[in-house]
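assembly run, all chains below
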Amino acid sequence: MLIKCGECGSSVSDQAASCPKCGFPLRRVRAATIVQASPEVQTIEQTGKSYKALKVAFWVIILFVCPILFFNGFIGSGILVLILAVIGEIFINIGIWWDHG
Ligand SMILES: [Zn+2]
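ok done. output:
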């Protein structure tokens, strides 16, 4: 397969380490691009997953832990946990917006 040299624009084999016309290093540039691209994608996927896990954790607290505290008479603790969970939820939404928006 032929590719275009990024330096002089002539057609070069993609198997060539460098451009035969100008000596521009083709392989090294491509390898560097691939190495740079993949960890970035992984980081985004990992942060996305951890945000989702945190969101689920906070919703479990809001929907299950707070009612349990309220029913057992721990009204003050229940309100405190509810407020903290809601604030956590808001910060996660800001974090998701910051990463992907
Ligand atoms: Zn060239």
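The chain has a mean pLDDT of 82.

The two ends are 38 Å apart (CA to CA).

not gonna interpret more than that til we talk
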